[in-house]
């Protein structure tokens, strides 16, 4: 077996992994007849000693040779060079010839059905117009200021520690800044211990629901409603009961009837600009909902992700601002202000609940990106965020008005909608045209629009779609409506 | 009730929230006797109409007045100005006088015990020396390059879409770059569909364990072992069985005995530099562990967070590189290379498993910070990461040698340790001195060191501590050892 030692040369400086060098060496010498067909190879331990490499490396090389069909292992006999060799055009053995890959399926059993599939979107194409679900215009996102601030902070010696572990609840600087901001703008009587910094509203939802719900618990949510939230509740094993939503929000009379019949654990509500219908929960209903929570001892998840983007008048105070009994878990986000892929948000809740949520959060991903948290705090403190929100609100209000006018004048007979008081999309019902066909036609003409089935149930077909206006300028809106018109 | 309309003046331009203006107005006029003690107030709806504000705002103002003790609500009678008013020194009513705060406890029931408390560390103090658990030196972290790259990318028009929603699995650019890097350096035969970008190794652990484990399932982990992992498994309801760890890693003979007796679902293993003892799992044991996994059909979580930091020889190939049957879920991280609070890591696994993990991840926090993912990919492509790893390894090797020499020469008779082949800490056993007392004394002298109880069980008291050397330069190490010496 000295032959192996003589023939297989390993170049420790090479970029090619050692195990590939070994398998390539074998292949070369098998082809050239130096290793004969049918030759029995020594064990991996022996080869490792001969070549003075780690045994794992030899096993990997043999695995590769086996996968490529050069060797075979016969039970209780050993490993042999195959008598019938694979047909390969002669030439350099490159990495591309490697065939050993990770298995497609796992070799162990797990309950695949416990993980509910979620629609996985790709990043939006840049060569098409898109009526998205109501997302901000990332072209105006204050990323430049954020990154500049990060850079400035990262150079300060005392900020270096924020690159270390610590602060699973979020940095004290961001929590104090946010607490003051929420006190002032939303009347939320919070202190820094009432706040957990999350990754967007979605992590707030996941954490809060994980803590409150046990499998089999009942959650109430509006219908039509926000799919991602419902899916998270179901992922956690909860049962979702749907409440009708009208122009004042979820129906509280129906909720009360349900409470009289059965134990409910949690009510999920989007107080501003309900997804998908964009309605705002009225003051009267907020007050009644709080009273019901106190009476029936359920939790309210108040997902106020869209508070900052109200156009007609001042937004309505959060229920959390009135809740003296600890029923409301308030969720907010910076993603609509900064950008969807810069994922920061927050939960405001009783301090004991925040501690539980922090413990769970640490188990999930340890902590947030602390230096960036401090950079966001800086943007709040120096007024950048307030200015950006104001600028965005003005811009999006104009874009809302422009799109609504376009839809009315150009497509008025095909569809109907209410002008939304806030948010970033118009909930639009198409009368006759089947939206799934319209969407197909539109795509061919360079416009992406959803097929109108997202909120359908067995009983109701909405044939409606959220037409996001915030991320389209006037020109783009006009083009998009023009394309839509040709598809009707 | 025209009095209310006359006396309560709202300044829409003021920074003070409207509800605070209203409550302050009431207090001022109650004090000055314009609103008499015992006066019955109209309902919130009526006041809202009189003041032309939202009813929620009025309810918030009344809440505040109630919390401060100015008004009281009598059941079935109404709300009245109190006959006995709170004693307050006269003066301007400022925001500081607000007493209405969020409740400490929730008003709904949830099973608090389901969330296991985790030690919540704060950021490290900058005025003390710290023997941490083995963390990188963030002073040399390539944050400057990362932030610069982010800034450059954020200005490119086609990169703007990476600020939008999309790519819950991680950007294709980072997954392809990482796949090539792992193929080349670790012999991991992955493609981009085998990779999920996570938030550090911790999220990899949480996702993988969530998918594999059901409550009651059995997990095997080394003892002494990594506390955060064990806690996550217990958080998910699994039962953790501990395997002894010696100088070659976890004991595979014991594992086989357990497998013969009962069904195990998963083995958790740190192949390089086991936490806390820093040993590397030997090739022999890796091969046997893989064979056992195939025989008993369990999953292996291979948490190779420390692969890049091996000093003595080349690191050993991952088991994932040899696994042809889909038993290994491989976890890695960038946090040790970039910085702990820049949270990026990855899972490598069969494509079907990665899809499940991506669905769950989307439910937890939607997606990663995509622009930063692309920036990290750039740092890999332009060689920055490879250079930084090489530089860190050289630096940390020197620091390891320096600390080991110091410990030997200065404290040799008090403690014992093996020189670690990799990682960022020395697992040090103290002979006689009680570490909990040493830690207290050290703190008084400006040195933070753990109390040696972290890994204790009912049966074993280790009186050992991980002395992190990577984040201390020679000078700091010398100071730290000097302080330690005075405490023994």
TrEMBL record, chains A, B:
Short name of one Pfam family: GntR
Matching CDD domains: AAT_like (cd00609), WHTH_GntR (cd07377)
InterPro entries named in the record: Aminotransferase_I/II_large, HTH_trans_reg/aminotransferase, PyrdxlP-dep_Trfase, PyrdxlP-dep_Trfase_major, Tscrpt_reg_HTH_GntR, WH-like_DNA-bd_sf, WH_DNA-bd_sf
Signal peptide: none
Record field: transmembrane: none
Keyword DNA-binding (UniProt): yes
HTH gntR-type domain span: 16-84
Keyword Nucleotidyltransferase: no
Keyword annotations: Aminotransferase, DNA-binding, Pyridoxal phosphate, Transcription, Transcription regulation, Transferase
Cited SMART domains: HTH_GNTR (SM00345)
An example Gene Ontology molecular-function term: DNA binding
Family: In the C-terminal section; belongs to the class-I pyridoxal-phosphate-dependent aminotransferase family.
PANTHER family: HTH-TYPE TRANSCRIPTIONAL REGULATORY PROTEIN GABR
Name under which the protein is recorded: PLP-dependent aminotransferase family protein
Taxonomic source organism: Chryseotalea sanaruensis
